[in-house]
Amino acid sequence: MNLPWFLRATRAYYFPARSVPVLLGTAPAAGIPGHPHRFDSITFLLALAAVPLPLRAYNRDQCALACAGAPDLWIAVCPVVYSARTRVGYNHSADANPPRPCPREEENPPMRFARSRRFLIPAVVLLCFALTVSGCHVFHPAAKVAAAPKPLPPAKPLPLDLAKVQPNEAGVVPILEYHDLVKGTKVTGYQYPAEAFRKDITWLYAHNYRPVSLSDYVNAKIDCPPGTSPVILTFDDALRGQFSYGPDGKVDPDCAIGILEAFHAQHADWPLRGTFFVLTDGDPKLPPAFYQKASSQAKMEALVRDGFEIGNHTIHHRLGIRHWPDSQVQAEFAGAVANIHKLLPSYHVQTLALPFGVYPSNRKLVVSGQSGSQAYHNICALLAGAGPAPSPMATEFKPYRLPRIIPGNEKFALRYWMDYLQANKEEKYVSDGDPNTFTVSLAEKGSLNAARLHNAHLFLRTYSGTQIVSDGTAPPPASVSAAKK
Ligand SMILES: [Zn+2]
Questions:
Q1: pTM of the complete model beyond 0.70
Q2: Most Cβ neighbours (<10 Å): which of 18, 149, 234, 384?
Q3: How remote is the CA of residue 336 from the centroid of ligand 1, in Å?
Q4: Dist. CA 403 → ligand 1 center (Å)
Q5: What percent of the chain has a predicted confidence (pLDDT) above 90?
Q6: From the CA of 171, how far away is ligand 1's center (Å)?
């Protein structure tokens, strides 16, 4: 966009002043990379309060200095003010020379300056107001550059025939919540037949689902083949039926890991992915992770080596967390990380499943906190049960309130939701095969969070019927209306 001459001429000159408002806490106005840049009413008031600063400066250097303490707007407005002042009788040569004694007193009769100020203040106020109403993106070329996406390889051509498969990366993703796997056929409480689990993944595979990791889903880096749908497997409580060694030292073929490894051996395009929300023996009343203390560490190491993730499930697995003080909540979350580190010293724990789906009263503690020297930060928090989770780019995606689906045949359990998504295929997430590009039908475009797509440096490809509308060669504009992150 062509800027007015005075902005072009002074943009570079005033740029260093940009760092100061950051320090002063006016970051939103200063064009922080990735921040949804917007000229809001608070900035307007701050700018208004700073009106006298450049008016009192004696030359351009001092004008810039005065502006440095003001909101970023002044980086644009200051030259206008200064320029106007020079026209009403200021010292034109002051910029080229060392600072002189006050030129206002030296060269400008007091009456003349007073007249100019009477003219300038309403003019600047009007300008501030106009910028507030219109937004100030035109005055932030540097901010735009800073927020621009990193260079990515151009989006690949869509590897799908739209006449046969229509990708929908705005669709829902099932996150399955398993507990113990047992012999027999009866589903009781948290126990689920191993054979039923085997049937579940066989059915999922046959219906084009492929497992992805929870962190890849949350980070919107879903990488599954074109035309397939992601599914996320989670296992809570580190129970015996999830990972068990037999007397011969081999993995029990009827535990979850035994079943998944055997399935992967037969179907290479079913990768080993899943998250184990473990309970370690941090609570002496609870059994060790996976119930075989001698092999707890070897199992944790094997899980990570194979491509699974380990998540936080607290130390004590108690219901009363909602009534606990902040310090106790943080000790619970941080302590669970510390206990995982006893078995996996360098592992980065970044996912949390809340026991029973119960939050502490201070919900911010779910995101991050610290207890003693142990800090924690979670990229997501999972609930217990409910239904499929939104696309990570959907406007309704809430990473700290992710619903899961329990296995079984009852209402709102796995069978119910799988049947539902088969009958309502347009609601299901269907991958385009390219983790850097989000492909949706034109009708679904509005359901995506454009600002999040932009900030994640993802491309957006749209189609209508069998025709590509936008080929995804450019990232989507960060829509102001979609600036909710
Ligand atoms: Zn649990």
A1: no
A2: 234
A3: 13
A4: 14
A5: 53
A6: 28
